[in-house]
Write a structure and sequence with these properties.
Elements: E1 2-8, E2 13-20, E3 25-29, H1 36-45, E4 48-53, H2 65-72, E5 75-79, E6 89-91, E7 96-99, E8 102-108, E9 117-123, E10 133-137, H3 158-173, E11 180-183, E12 201-202, H4 203-209, H5 218-226, H6 235-242, H7 250-257, E13 260-261, H8 263-271, E14 275-278, H9 282-287, E15 289-290, E16 293-295, H10 302-309, E17 316-319, H11 324-333, E18 339-343, E19 357-358, E20 361-363, H12 365-372, E21 379-382, H13 386-391, E22 397-399, E23 418-421, H14 426-437, E24 443-446, H15 449-455, H16 471-480
Parallel strand pairs: 3-4, 4-5, 5-6, 10-11, 13-18, 14-16, 14-17, 17-18, 20-24, 21-22, 21-23, 23-24
Antiparallel strand pairs: 1-2, 2-3, 7-8, 8-9, 9-10, 11-12, 15-19
Helix pairs in contact: 3-5, 7-11
């Protein structure tokens, strides 16, 4: 048996290829939507991908089951509670699919979603009765479990899902301690709250160290797994529904989305309600950008913030610097197929149109510290989460999390300078672009965020609670940069 894990860092997503060397048959589990890597590896190994499994209807990305069906002829398999539009094989609890030395047994493990399953994988060359691994989807993570409170499971309450999850974890806990645990997500995913950076473990290790696998009454378990969960982006419900539906595959949507548009076409689209998405780094965007553009850089949590701040209901036009294809493809990964095209020649297209340009000023931590002491001090806008702000913040800062900035713009004064900061500069650049869209011209971005402020040994509230390099700083920085 051959088993390979693929890990997509920007979505903290793990998928799997399982193949049998005798029959040259393969299966892919929880694939990402751009499937070329699976096709390439199958071709290199001489395998035919005959099956694609979904452990549940994912909310944070659009899975590649339709693509593998269309391009490889794979049969789509999922749990019997998965009520999907497309043709699929509905597996009951305990059902088995075998090819050569590979045996894949379905185990119903609802809780994150009602249709959730885990897949027991047996290498029959070693044992047909002791599982080599369990692919747990979003039921069991390394160090955590799938949250039961997401709205993706319409019509089922968080309490009902928590009860399902409690029972499902008991089933997983009974597996042999040596069974390898391969989840569908790792650290950085919003499908849980404390996922490990490790991408594989064992049942034995998780029974020792995973808080949710410790023996406890249900009420205590429910309180633990529902407390302090991160806010889920709005696109999660959309993607969970799309993953149930018959839809166009990524290849066909890219054919219409990857169109080079003239500046005049982009301006017409913008003026008629299109979303202008600038995917360059913050320093480039703030140096010069197109009026009305939203900046979400490709080198940060691009998919999460694009899914949070963009709409599926209006066309998207991308502005980049020779990375437009990647930007459009990564939007496709999360189901944003409403891209109208990209600006041909990027920002060079605006060289002769200064009337279409805008800039955002940048300020250092040291310079801001001096301005704070002046009589007309700037308004300091902290766009980190409430939790991050509670750990440490600038004494005169006003916290409006980026996820709520548009709805709370009235809290940001228009009659005085505004300085925006986050942890390291990624989210503050997004926030500055949102403020610019709202017509604010008195906005500056603090370079390096609160990490730079702390590194400069400037005062924080509470005082001396952290310095750059401490665990608290690193933890906060890892949230969203």
């Amino acid at each position: 048996m051959y088993l390979r894990q693929y890990y997509l860092g920007c979505l903290a997503h793990a998928s799997y290829l399982i193949a049998d060397e005798k029959t040259k048959t393969a299966a892919v589990v929880d694939p990402q939507r751009d499937i070329q890597q699976y096709l390439d590896d199958a071709r290199a190994g001489g395998y035919q991908i005959k099956y694609v499994f979904l452990t549940h209807f994912h909310a944070d990305f659009l899975a590649g089951h339709i693509e593998l069906r269309n391009q490889a002829g794979a049969r789509i398999c999922m749990g019997e509670r998965g009520n999907a539009e497309f043709e699929h094989t509905a597996l009951k609890d305990g059902d088995v699919i075998e090819f050569g030395d590979v045996k894949i047994q379905n185990m119903e493990t609802p809780g994150h979603t009602p249709e959730g399953i885990s897949l027991l994988v047996f290498d029959k060359a070693n044992s047909a009765t002791i599982p080599h691994a369990v692919l747990t989807g979003d039921t069991l993570f390394i160090g955590d479990v799938g949250r039961p409170d997401l709205l993706a499971s319409i019509g089922v309450t968080a309490d009902e899902l928590a009860a399902m999850l409690y029972d499902s974890l008991d089933k997983l806990r009974r597996l042999p301690d040596t069974t390898l645990v391969y989840p569908a997500h790792g650290a950085g995913s919003l499908c849980g709250k404390s996922l490990s950076k490790e991408t594989v473990s064992t049942i034995g290790e998780q029974k020792k160290f995973n808080y949710a696998l410790q023996p406890m009454p249900f009420e205590q378990f429910r309180s633990l797994v529902t407390a302090d969960q991160p806010e889920a982006p709005g696109y999660f419900v959309y993607d969970a529904i799309k993953n149930r539906q018959e839809r166009a595959d990524l290849e066909s949507t890219l054919q219409t989305s990857l169109r080079a548009l003239s500046l005049d076409e982009v301006v017409r689209l913008r003026d008629s309600g299109a979303q202008i998405l600038d995917v360059r780094e913050a320093i480039d965007f703030e140096g010069a950008s197109m009026k009305g553009a939203l900046n979400i850089g490709l080198k940060g949590k691009y998919a999460t913030w694009a899914g949070t701040l963009l709409s599926h209901d209006a066309p998207i036009v991308v502005i980049g610097d020779d990375n437009e294809e990647e930007a459009v493809m990564r939007l496709g990964r999360i189901g944003f197929d409403n891209v109208a095209g990209y600006l041909k020649d990027g920002m060079e297209a605006l060289n002769a149109r200064p009337d279409l340009l805008q800039t955002v000023s940048r300020i250092t931590a040291a310079a801001l510290a001096e301005q704070i002491e002046q009589q007309k001090a700037p308004f300091i806008l902290d766009v980190r989460s409430e939790k991050e702000h509670g750990i440490v913040h600038l004494g005169r800062g006003h916290n409006v999390p980026l996820t709520h900035l548009r709805e709370r713009l009235a809290e940001v004064p228009s009659d005085r300078p505004v300085v925006v900061h986050c942890e390291g500069g990624y989210r503050s650049a997004i926030a500055c672009s949102i403020l610019a869209q709202a017509g604010r011209t008195n906005v500056s971005d603090m370079v390096g965020g609160i990490k730079a402020w702390i590194a400069s040994k400037l005062p924080t509230t509470p005082e001396n609670t952290m310095t750059c390099g401490t665990k608290i700083c690193e933890t906060a920085a890892s949230k969203n940069n």
